[in-house]
Amino acid sequence: MDRKGLLLVLSGPSGAGKGTICESFMKKNKDVRLSVSTTTRKMRTGEVDGISYNFISKDEFEKSLKEDGFLEHVHVFGNYYGTPKSVVEENINKGINVLLEIEIVGAMQIKEEYPDAVLIFVLPPTICELEKRIVKRGTETDDQIKDRLSRALSEIRKIDEYSYFIINKDVDEAVDYMESIIKAEKSNVKRYSQQIINLYQEEK
Ligand code: 5GP
Asked: With 80 as the cut, is the pLDDT of residue 2 above it?
């Protein structure tokens, strides 16, 4: 049976550990493509252009936006972030699962456009732990940390929009959950019912 790839959206507050989960998940799941987002934010130490993000200028981003180049986009923390449309659509049409690691506003845009997308919310064990993680990262100023924490609380209030949640206490455990979610979605009757009926009718 030909199945379109799943559009997996891993979302949740900044600092909840989405990036770490994604990295670990991608090492184990080579058949899934991680979508590389485009951003106007400055590159952090250790980040690589084209791998961590596609780093572009504000003008370039706005040009691409006008040309309908993004599946979703958002302007947060003073910068643009967006998911390039063509790469994601090409892979999904080829039956390849694609993983997006994005914040909640973008996730809601995806939900609207692609109701079949699988929305997963990553939670930190506690808000205190979230603060510790952002502080430890050492890449944000005090005001930026405050901004990220207050945004985190308002994001958590919208968890009802998601299908699954993962509490990120342990990365390996979080990755296990993601793999289970994918397996469950691959056997979701609602997603594939018409294809199944067609397949068995054709055989007869
Ligand atoms: P950071 O600046 O820490 O890399 O990312 C800030 C937030 O933007 C994170 O929550 C991250 O998941 C989110 N983000 C990264 N890329 C995208 C994207 O393409 N679209 C949306 N909507 N959010 C993104």
From this structure: no
Residue 107 CA, ligand 1 centroid: distance in Å = 10
For ligand 1, atom 3, the nearest C-alpha belongs to: 14
Q: Which atom of ligand 1 is nearest to the CA of 19?
A: 12
Which ligand 1 atom sits nearest the alpha carbon of residue 105? 22
- Residue with the smallest CA separation from ligand 1 atom 19 is 82
pTM for this prediction: 0.92
* 123 pLDDT tier (thresholds 50, 70, 90): very high
Residues within a 6 A CB radius of ligand 1: 14, 18, 37, 41, 72, 74, 76, 81-83, 101-103, 105-106
Cβ distance 100 to 9 under 8 Å?
yes
- Does residue 204 surpass a pLDDT of 80? no
At residue 45 the predicted structure's pLDDT band, cuts being 50, 70 and 90, is very high
Above 90 in pLDDT, residue 38?
yes
Structure tokens at 182: 């994918």
Domains and CATH numbers, the chain: 7-35+97-202 (3.40.50.300)
Angle between helices 127-137 and 142-156 (to 10 degrees): 150
Minimal CA–CA distance to 3: which of 202, 203, 193?
193
